[in-house]
Amino acid sequence: MEQLGTVETICRYPVKSMAGEDVAAAFAGFGGIMGDRVYAFLREGGTKGFPWLTAREREELVLYRPSFRAGAAADLPVDLEASLALGPGVSPIFPPESAFEVDVETSEGKTLPLRSSELAADLARKSGAAVTLRSSERSLTDCRPISLLGNASVRALGTELGMSLDRRRFRANLYADWQGDMPYRENDLVGGTLAIGERVRIAILERDPRCKMITIDPTTAQTDRRILRHVNEAHGTTMGVYAAVLVEGVVRRGDGIWLV
């Protein structure tokens, strides 16, 4: 197998459209990264077929910082080694629901339980509509379960735009350092299979079509339309790639990435 690079950062987003958190290791399952987008808010009167409250409607959401109350208990399945010993195709048991309890630091710096009526009222007031919390053990992603982006691609896009870009705008699960520091290397991998670390296998399905989310600064929530306009015109609306997990396992920071 040809080594293409390494996993530089693993990121999950406990609540859809809110800030993410970097982790040293995470379970990559058929439904995505464990703990990724396990919660989302529905907005009353939202778009049919896509009723979620996201930063597309309320940019300030990216400033809300969720964290799992149980910490590392939300990182890996129960009895992981015993489950993996049974071979590919046997899905491990997820942690109990209590492991996924979340607290959220609001944009004003106040920390509230995710399930609290106070947080729901805060979001309703700011979005102008009542909200309802939804949850799932499997990620509530818009499209595919895993997203991957090369750090070199972010730097290259910033050079093209003449500005410094915070990669958090792109909300990927896996950030890769490619050998040779090749920008947009991930685009060439569509249709291929990657091995990550000792066990995980992912299929690269398609390039990741982008929307308003990449225009939102993750530190200030200010928008810059030039970014999406340039991605649309110069990169066919895409940045990064989507993937599906073929063999479940643990992804660790620093893991090698090989082309199978």
Structural summary, described in words:
There is one protein chain. The chain is built from four helices and 17 strands. It is 14% helix and 35% strand. The strands form four sheets. The chain has a seven-stranded mixed barrel. Strands 4-3-16 form a three-stranded antiparallel beta sheet, with no helix packed on it. Strands 6-5-10 form a three-stranded antiparallel beta sheet. It has 260 residues and is α+β, with helices and mostly antiparallel strands. A hairpin with a 2-residue loop joins strand 3 (25-29) and strand 4 (32-33). The longest helix is centred in the middle third of the chain and has 11 residues, at 117-127.
Cα Rg: 18 Å
Strand/helix succession? EEEEEEEHEEHEEHEEEHEEE
User: Approximately what portion of the residues adopt beta-strand conformation?
Assistant: 35-45%
Low-pLDDT parts are none
Helical fraction: 10-25%
What is the number of strand segments? 17
Mean pLDDT reading? 94
Biggest sheet, in brief? 7 strands, mixed, barrel
Put simply, the count of helices is 4
Straight-line N-to-C gap: 5 Å
General shape:
globular
Strand order of the largest sheet: 1-12-11-15-14-13-17
* Helix-strand category: alpha+beta
